Amino acid sequence: MSPSLHLFLLCHLSLFTSVTPGKVCGRPPLPDTIDQTGIQRVYEPGAEVFLACKRGYVPSAGSRKIICTSNGKWTNPTLKCEPKQCDVPGPLMNGKIHFTDISFQSVINFTCNEGYVLRGVNNSECLQNGTWSNALPFCEVVTCGLPEIPKYGKIIHHKKSKDNTTAFGDSVTYECLPPQALFGNEIGFCTANGNWTKAPECRFVTCPVPPGIENGFISFAVKREHSYKEKVKYGCKVDYILDGPVEIECQKTGQWSTMPVCRAPCRVDIERGRIFYNGQKIWIENLKPNKILHSEVVAVYCKNKEKACGYPVTSQCINGILRIPQCYEEPSGVQYNLNSKSLPSEIKMC
Ligand SMILES: *[C@@H]1O[C@H](CO)[C@@H](O)[C@H](O)[C@H]1NC(C)=O
Ligand SMILES: *[C@@H]1O[C@H](CO)[C@@H](O)[C@H](O)[C@H]1NC(C)=O
Ligand SMILES: *[C@@H]1O[C@H](CO)[C@@H](O)[C@H](O)[C@H]1NC(C)=O
Ligand SMILES: *[C@@H]1O[C@H](CO)[C@@H](O)[C@H](O)[C@H]1NC(C)=O
Ligand SMILES: *[C@@H]1O[C@H](CO)[C@@H](O)[C@H](O)[C@H]1NC(C)=O
């Protein structure tokens, strides 16, 4: 301690003891936001003190002046100090600024969206002069390099790539060179960790010698193994109907797609009677040959005995089977030959 300061302190002490108590003012009670530097411990009545806001705060209301009154009390300090405000930060492209307050001493944080990396400092503080401690950072997109080209495959870029780099979110389509088949994802993406999604594999696939089909044949094909996507056509024997696809294809799995089947024709199993077939009423002996094709429909005639009228009942040929409706009654040879006018097909219709 310097001698002069000693003297100064002693001086004060003597003042304290010699002057009548209650006539001087002590340190004024001041809020935190007011600058306390240079405030003395003791003031004479009538002394005026001009208050100032602390650094980082600005006066917002009230008077700067307080006076030490004759009874040793300070007039009420009315000065109000508010923290300095910094500018609203941002915007931060491809990122977010986290803040609740932008006044002196507030800290704001910066984060980048998925697929972006923060370049710069991830926070900033509002300083006493109303500026931010750190410059706004920026969010740089993650880059991925070029995706791996699968063996026997190729890549179709959805966007042109400059300098052999790609960026987060870029995508490509993979294709395999025929006859290879693609296993995995057809579409690839540059991910947020800077890697491409896993490339698919292109593999050679063969299907066995195409199988024969019952009552049918393979048309336009050599009996050999086939590779992926190759096709084989089928046909059916005369009067057989092809049910299913005409063509089968060698699939990725090494299996053929669903095979067709050949459906058999039917015999209309009545001896004597008239049927309705192909829009015509014909006697069974005139159906030559006695054969209808798979899925075709015929009608035979039954009799309603109470009303004494006839009515047609239909039946469909399903792969060689045609059920004759139960109501159908086969007439005797005599009735058929001599009294055909009385048959259910010839009397009035119900
Ligand atoms: C900023 O980050 C710090 C530390 O990670 C955290 O304590 C604070 O709450 C964050 N502030 C805001 C406004 O998100
Ligand atoms: C800011 O970066 C520091 C290290 O640089 C890290 O510890 C902290 O978690 C980061 N804060 C936020 C909010 O990201
Ligand atoms: C604000 O204060 C900071 C640190 O005290 C200083 O670096 C900066 O230059 C100041 N800005 C202005 C505009 O006064
Ligand atoms: C991109 O990569 C290919 C092969 O890896 C190379 O031949 C070409 O020079 C590269 N281009 C640039 C612009 O780097
Ligand atoms: C990216 O791929 C490389 C090579 O396959 C691997 O070593 C690395 O761990 C991957 N990075 C991430 C973040 O998955």
TrEMBL record:
Keywords: Disulfide bond, Glycoprotein, Heparin-binding, Repeat, Secreted, Signal, Sushi. Its main location: secreted. Residues 1-21 form the signal peptide. GO terms for cellular component: extracellular region. PROSITE patterns: SUSHI. GO terms for molecular function: heparin binding. Residues 23-83, 84-141, 142-204, 205-264 form the Sushi domain. SMART domains: CCP. SUPFAM superfamilies: Complement control module/SCR domain. It is found in: Secreted. Disulfide bonds join 25-68, 112-139, 207-250. Binds to various kinds of negatively charged substances such as heparin, phospholipids, and dextran sulfate. May prevent activation of the intrinsic blood coagulation cascade by binding to phospholipids on the surface of damaged cells. This is Beta-2-glycoprotein 1. It comes from Scleropages formosus (Asian bonytongue). The lineage of its organism: Eukaryota, Metazoa, Chordata, Craniata, Vertebrata.
